[in-house]
Amino acid sequence: MAGDRLGPGARETVTPAGRARITAPHRPGFPSLPDRSPAALPKRTVVFGRRPCGVPGFACTRPSGVAVSGGKVQGSVVVSLPPDAGTGRVPMTLGRPAAEKIKRGKGIGMPSINYLTRVEFDFGAIEKLPEIMDLTGIERPMIVTDQGLIHHGLVDRIKSVAPLFQETEVFADTPANPTEAAVNSAFDRYRAAGCDGLVAIGGGSPIDLAKAVAILDTHGGPLAQFAAIEGGIDRLGPVVPLVAVPTTAGTGSEVGRGALITLADGRKLALISPHLIPHAAVCDPELTLDLPPGLTAATGLDAISHCIETYLSPLVNPVADAIALDGLARAVASIETARKDGQDRAARWNMMMAALQGGLTFQKGLGAIHALSHPLGAIRHVSLHHGTLNAILLPHVLEWNETACGPKYAKIRWQLGLAADTHLPSFFRELNARLNLPSTLAELGVRGDDLTRVAEAAVLDHTASTNPRQLSVDDYRAVLTAAMGNG
Ligand SMILES: [Fe+2]
Fold it and tell me: What is the whole-number distance in angstroms between the Cα of residue 306 and the centre of ligand 1?
């Protein structure tokens, strides 16, 4: 086994302490472990060698946690690793509960997998919009967007690619956190103009609002009856066609089956149905090149939190896990560049792809970050950005969840090329700081007297049940208190 991993002549034994000891000949050009082991090796790893060991990118380049001492084993390197951590890889297991179910001859209870949205993704993808519109059969679309994109000229730019859009109705009053009142007013315009489909241009808010308008067209209101926690999933059937054109890289709503709307009663609830997945998504990173640095960072952290929460969700969906982990690594590797240089096309491409990947996978279930950011986004005395909230909450929720996630944190570290002893909450806290994101809820204007209401709503949020650790109202309040900057 060790020979396969480390090259010819390598030998693996288990020490009395239960640690694997790998002995391999020392020679220039000695192959490093086949993955990114230097960073993934655990803290207590000791590498002995007569000279700096000669393993390219191995002990000699690891910044900390590795002792190199000459002369202990002449002509050899000896690497001590905990069992199963030798390559930094985490075994691909189903987890004990799922494995037990299978042993008993039962199914795991996997959620449906649905990745069938047509996606046109690339620089210049917007040119395919006329073709997409033809396929949807929409003859009188209504564009749903926001004032910022109108002023920026982006809506006119998109309208110019298809003659169909020249006289089309445009609803541009989408609030930062879409409300039922805004949905109703968009629907009035939609009906008055005799529209038969929707094109949502923007971030998550216009896309979510357009989904809610589509519901009203085919199902009528009020929207509360379609909220997931009110049993609305079974009440939703097919809706009118919707084409999503994201102009940020974060929400994932362009391929997601949910819409978050603040209802008339003040609750911010999810409307969820496979019928709400847009008929097509046109993802053109060109549209994100001028996204300001702050919004690039905040929306990017939304994508990152989708990928992390999806992966940590205890439901079983290896397809989603694989996509989420790839999206996570892609976003973490690109977000700082995208923020620093918005015109970096590769970074923008990767961020938009990570957002798409997050959206494709979160049908596996999100967790406590979103369970908290949804009710925080419904606070009336201050308008809070969803991605910014997720950025602040991410390190705190990671602290809470660690004991319930088995080997998944190790897998995340491996995926990100981090040392095995990296404290993930600190890693993301530092990433937020480098991105100039706020670090506390208090900075955003959240007040102490908001916390209990938010904690009570978090327990009821549709994402709470797929957090790896079930949190009580008191637990959520403790997370919030820490995130306020008081914990
Ligand atoms: Fe989100």
Answer: 6
120 touches 128 (CB < 8 A): yes
Predicted confidence (pLDDT) per residue in 201-224, tens digit = 999 999 999 999 999 999 999 999
CA of 370 to the centre of ligand 1 (A): 6
User: Which residues sit with Cβ closer than 5 angstroms to ligand 1, an ion?
Assistant: 302
Q: Which of 357, 327, 325, 311 is nearest to 467 (CA)?
A: 311
Helix (H, G, I), strand (E, B) or coil at 299: helix
The contacts of residue 225 (CB under 8 Å, 6+ apart) are 232, 235
Q: Which domains does the chain have, with CATH numbers?
A: 2-81 (no CATH), 122-287 (3.40.50.1970), 289-486 (1.20.1090.10)
Residue 303 C-alpha to ligand 1 middle, in angstroms? 7
Summarize pLDDT for 167-195 with one digit per residue, the tens. 899 999 999 889 999 999 999 999 999 99
What's this model's pTM, rounded to 2 decimal places?
0.78
Strand-pairing partners, residue 117, are none
How many angstroms is it from 144 CA to the middle of ligand 1? 20
User: Residue 300 and residue 483: Cα distance in Å, rounded?
Assistant: 19
Distance 436 CA to ligand 1 centre (A): 19
Q: How far is residue 84's CA from residue 82's CA, in Å, rounded to a whole number? A: 6
Nearest-angstrom CA–CA distance, 225 and 398: 33
Q: Give Cα 247 distance to the centre of its chain.
A: 17
CA nearest 347: which of 357, 356, 355, 337?
Answer: 337
